[in-house]
Design brief:
The protein has three domains: 118 residues, Acyl-CoA dehydrogenase/oxidase, N-terminal domain (Butyryl-Coa Dehydrogenase, subunit A, domain 1, Orthogonal Bundle); 101 residues, Butyryl-CoA Dehydrogenase, subunit A, domain 2 (Beta Barrel); 165 residues, Butyryl-CoA Dehydrogenase, subunit A, domain 3 (Up-down Bundle). 47% of the residues lie in helices and 13% in strands. Helix 4 runs parallel beside helix 8. It is α+β, with helices and mostly antiparallel strands and 408 residues long. The radius of gyration is 22 Å and the shape is globular.
């Protein structure tokens, strides 16, 4: 995939900034993504026409090693792509981010034999994955037999391979690891080996195609499985160095930023054209709108700047093969949760400032619902802030925190 070469900042005197190559390509697809998302037949999942366009643009393989045909970018690039696509349509951006992570997991953690099976064809694969271990499996020599029912399989209806998590069983009981936790394996199965249940009827992120699906009982070779805890990458890449959790945070942060970005635009645009009853000036000219808008806009900019600052540090360390410290990982979790909360509030304020209806079609109303859903993702919750608190407090308690020259 030599056509996926990245734009890079070759002047070491310039500050770090995210490459915008893929985001620029996504901007060129903006009108197409919007148009396809508005069609009734695409109300539950991403338009297959958009999926094909994103495949042609290389969007699904940003975090895949170059040896497998991917771009092996850093997380800044990935975040920027998710932000751009989500600004056009949040469900499309969500599915893209989720499937990019799933495809990265397949590329980084599966055996050489299975990677050759999945990535060795003429057409690069797109994956879907669920992570909750709601399936069960038993081991029989070099084969596993498993089954289960899974939820939130984002994009599974247009995936080539689907990964599901199985709790390993022995004599009807979970096999426990040394830490006392059940042993969980993941397995990428061909899409035709799963049964999509078609029960996706939700409010918010409606077109992500996050259907429930079932894995009927079946046998699969041991080399189709991988460590569901992502502690054993099988090949080198930036994403393998960065870690799956941080990559997930980057993708979903981009989705939240894209929703807020579009909401601010829509609110400003509508406010410049709309008048309230008996008013002589547009909503945009009223003191209340101006004050609320600039307050939310600066919160968006602050959250975005901090997120990209931390992701740029992630990329710098990944470029030299250096692992993140626990404190740095906790800061990523902190900014991910805070950014989602800020972007949710921006979407609510943007809708409330100019709209009085939830009538369809309404980008502001849809973004309000989508932002609320995004802020309920399993990586976004107050526990991430509690987990981050100790290392953040320790940093501020350090004597160096008094000085702006301390480097953080």
């Amino acid at each position: 995939m030599s056509n996926l070469a990245l734009e890079t900042n070759t002047n070491p005197g310039l500050p770090a900034r995210p490459s915008v190559t893929f985001a620029t390509r996504a901007a060129e697809l903006r009108d197409f993504i919007k148009s396809e998302a508005g069609k009734p037949e695409n109300a539950a999942t991403t338009s297959l026409n958009v999926v094909e366009a994103m495949r042609e643009a290389g969007f699904y393989w940003l975090l895949v090693p170059e040896s497998l045909g991917g771009a092996d970018t850093g997380v800044c690039e990935f975040t920027a792509l998710a932000e751009e696509v989500s600004s056009a349509d949040s469900s499309t951006g969500w599915s893209l981010a989720a499937q990019s992570i799933a495809t990265m997991v397949a590329a980084n953690f599966c055996s050489d034999a299975h990677v050759e099976r999945m990535f060795g064809g003429a057409r690069l694969p797109v994956m879907s994955a669920t992570y909750a271990p709601t399936g069960k499996a038993i081991q029989m020599g070099n084969t596993y037999k498993g089954s289960g029912r899974y939820g939130f399989g984002s994009g599974c209806s247009h995936a080539d391979w689907v990964s599901s998590a199985f709790v390993l069983q022995e004599e009807g009981k979970p096999v426990l690891q040394a830490d006392g936790q059940p042993r969980v394996i993941g397995a990428f199965l061909p899409a035709e080996k799963i049964q999509i249940l078609g029960n996706w009827d939700v409010v918010g992120m409606e077109a992500t195609g996050s259907f429930d699906y079932e894995v009927p009982e079946q046998a699969f070779p041991a080399d189709w499985t991988f460590n569901q805890y992502w502690t054993e990458p099988m090949r080198q890449s930036r994403a393998a160095t960065i870690g799956t959790l941080v990559s997930v945070c980057a993708g979903h942060t981009g989705v939240a930023l894209g929703i807020a970005r579009r909401s601010l635009h829509e609110a400003a645009h509508v406010a410049s054209l709309k008048k309230r009853l008996y008013a002589t000036a547009s909503i945009a000219d009223t003191p209340t709108f101006k004050l609320d808008f600039v307050r939310n806009e600066v919160l968006f900019q602050a959250a975005r700047a901090r997120a990209y600052e931390l992701f740029a540090n992630v990329d710098r360390k990944a470029n030299v093969g250096e692992a993140l410290t626990e404190a740095e990982i906790q800061q990523i979790r902190q900014i991910t949760t805070w950014t989602h909360q800020v972007c949710r509030n921006v979407a609510v304020a943007s809708y409330s400032s100019v709209s009085s209806s939830l009538r369809r079609p309404s980008v502001l109303a849809q973004n309000l619902l989508d932002a609320a859903v995004a802020a309920q993702h399993f990586i976004v919750n107050d526990m991430s802030l509690f987990d981050a608190a100790s290392s953040v407090i320790d940093q501020w308690a350090n004597e160096g925190a008094q000085s702006v020259g301390s480097g953080w």
